[in-house]
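re the bet — no i am not wrong, look at it urself. input seq straight from the record:
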Amino acid sequence: MEIIRTENLSKSYGAILAVDRVNLSIQEGEIMALLGPNGAGKTTTLMILSTLLKPSSGMARVNGFDVRSRPDRVRASIGMVFQDPSSDELLTGWENLRLHALMYDVPWPSIPDRISGVLKLVGLENRRNHLVKTYSGGMRRRLEIARGLLHEPRVLFLDEPTLGLDPQTREHIWEYIETLARDTGMTIVLTTHYMEEAERLCSRVAIIDHGAVVALDTPRALCDAIGGDTILIRGKQLAVDPIRKFPFVRALETVEDGIRLSVTEAGAHLQAILQAAGPVERVEVHPADLNDVFMYYTGKGIREGTGGVLEHIRSFARVR
């Protein structure tokens, strides 16, 4: 059953097109990733779907309700976890969740059990009465997820759920998301620029760049579609331009102390590449992965920068 649908969904700020005719169909119970660099339009798309921004054109429905005409019903159907924590630091975890329950009209008799249930799910039972300002970054993120689940939404939006977390905490968050999807059948839509996050968690991935969906399929199908191999060459003074001109080099990006290539038939062309590269310290070759898919469709690796909807708004303000 389809629970989210967009048709030519667009959002612009003056001449800046933040979301460019996005078409998505997301099924109930699916974990879907919007994968792309900072500033690609992922967060803007989520903010439209959660009714925090109005689209400039196109259509979006969540749980059967139009985001323009029925924003109240959309909001009742969703949970939203933002990049930046928004819980009150001067309240305890329990008090934050109780306030959220009241705002969402959770039936009064069920509030204590609901709060206990979500705290148990995210492993914060023993910190329920501690002030949020004493929580670690990972604990705050887990509390945000608990808050998004409290009113039992049909759709959960997670905007960069593991951004800035250490590897161990990131692994724990992934486990919570997997458990949630398995045990509740909830639809989960997350934005990320971590390739391994999308590969592990998601049944399908939409790669977004400059506001447009440039590829959409399962992670395995996306990798199989481009074929080829990845070659990682390490060296301090590598010759990039000669390699870029080879017809069998699909994409190239510079990395720390080297270059990464997406190449057809690496075995047949490896010697020519190494001869053109100059002094090489180390070489690695592996089959295509999701990062290679991203390079293939966008011609670059993940971009750095703040980006996102706030940057679009600032740019629009400068234009005005």
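see?? Residues 79 and 156 are 5 Å apart (CA to CA). told u. also The first helix runs from residue 42 to 49. so pay up
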